[in-house]
Amino acid sequence: GAPGWGAIPVSGGNSACFFSTRHAAGGAPDAGKPGKILILGGGPNRIGQGLEFDHGCVNAAAALREAGHAAVLVNCNPAAVSTDAALAGPLYLEPLTTGDVLEICEREKPRGVIAQFGGQVAAGVARGLAAAGVALLGTSAEAAAVAGDRGRFRELLKRLGIPTPEGGEAAGADEAVALAERLGYPVMARIADGRGGETAEVVHDAAMLRERVGKAGGRPVFLDRFLRDALECEADALADGEDVFIPAVMEHIELAGVHSGDAACVLPPVSLSPERVETMRAHTRAIARELRVAGLMNVQFAAGVEGVFVLKATPRASRTVPLVSKVCGLPLARLAARLALGAKLADLKLPAGKTIPRFGVKESVFPFGRFPDVDPVLGPEMRSTGSVLGLSPDFGLAFRKSQEAAQSPLPSSGAVLISVRERVPQVLEIARTFAACGFRLKATSGTRRFLADNGIAADLAVKINEGRPDIADDIRNRLIQLVINTPVDRRGAYVDDSYIRKAAIRYNVPCMTTLAAAAAAARGVAALRGAPDVIGESLQEYHAGLR
């Protein structure tokens, strides 16, 4: 028979939660008065698609309710906060596909659909809804299509005079290898339609590239010149189609090449010059105006010796929105919902040039503890399953608090193992900081020799198969309290030293796989020596102090 709607019993009142059924067991909900707004959720929690988007949907529904609009919420994850029947009326527990949502639109006849809070899943559904004639509120489907098409977006940046890494699209292995040779290795390779960076990889040679193209299944492969040693940054912005408000620019702690969802980040930035921050703000304003964004937009940058490059723009809520909202004390998702309904930024009376009195450090939470045989090295493919926030007037303390929240607290004493590929001054600075804090240093032969040549003493850490007790024994016997281990670029080296990182994960020893994270950890340890008693405050107290 024709599909009907079954009601899901909800405690404390009349049911407002429904699912489609061919048996029509519970009857159809009343479509109610006209003028409802439909919000698309983020779908099942998975890597690259999680509760950050749930945050946006919940706050958008609250904003609509405050503005006198009835919100219809569609999501298919019963564990999400956005599937609480008290938030919207009605709530549909339905798959986020174009066909399923069109059936709901046929029943509810909403004034329009807001898709910018549900991540990439909702964005995909929105394209189908727009093609079927459903009104999208906020940023247009065409603007989202331009930003999502690497070729069209590259043309937009060229028109605006904004630099972006050189790149192109390849349809097969031979074409990809020829393009990569022109760009110069390493290159960032992405397969079309990958979510959460799941098909992205830094490629170092032709053999590696051919293997990557072979996994594309006939889909196009996008190649970009990889910017070595570049600092990755992000900006979240609110826009009304004309004016643009940028509450903060975030700086990633890891260098470019680590997925933005995995990288720890800090705002306000700690190492960017004011000139570069203003350049990023100017690029963000120009892109938002060109796309006529109405709501939220996220722009990702890479800042290196060659300048500031735009990597990507996403004209919808990003996973950093909860972080920026909490650190800046601004309900970005609620404000974006009002902008999607047609409000102007001038109406919102947002504070211009407000100083942020705390450093906010976002750290990602990883499932490596449940998968001890997985190498915890970070890259362009997202692997985190959540995130936490540390707030403090001192960056080092904020980083330390973020590590504690992620259940990987930094030690206050003991031994630090250093085994890194780099031979740069930053390694020496990290080692000296830990030594000055009273830590005993251990290092593998090459790193130990580099430290000794620069006047830093360290005990020898024995590699596996070179004697006993080796590094794995020391980690197992709790003789090492922190591991700093950076693998070399090529895949062959991952097999050589991954046992160090895996042993650290298995025995719950904090492990830093980038020099940037190790430097932040050193600052966190040093900061705690100067302020051993960290006095906490509630988020409400912090926000009250911002007003």
State the gist of this model.
With about 550 residues, this protein is an alpha/beta fold. The chain has helices at about 50-65, 100-110, 120-130, 140-150, 150-160, 175-185, 205-215, 275-290, 320-330, 330-340, 345-350, 395-405, 425-435, 445-455, 470-475, 490-505, 515-530, 540-545, and strands spanning about 5, 15-20, 35-40, 70-75, 90-95, 110-115, 165-170, 185-190, 200-205, 220-225, 230-240, 245-255, 265, 295-305, 305-315, 360-365, 385-390, 415-420, 440-445, 460, 480-485, 510.
| CA gyration radius, whole angstroms | 25 Å
Helix content: 25-40%
Cross-sheet strand order for the largest sheet: 15-14-11-12-13-16-17
> In terms of per-residue confidence, which ranges show pLDDT below 50 for 5 or more consecutive residues?
none
- N- to C-terminal distance: 58 Å
The biggest beta sheet reads: 7 strands, antiparallel
**What amount of the residues lies in strands?**
15-25%
**Quantity of strands, as a count:** 22
Note down, in words, how this protein is organized.
With about 550 residues, the chain is of the alpha/beta class. Helices cover about 35% and strands about 20% of the residues. The strands form 4 sheets. Strands 15-14-11-12-13-16-17 form a 7-stranded antiparallel beta sheet, with helices on both faces. Helix 16 (about 490-505) links the parallel strand 21 and strand 22 (about 510). Helix 1 (about 50-65) crosses helix 10 and helix 13 packs parallel to helix 17. The protein is globular and about 75 Å long. The mean pLDDT is about 85.
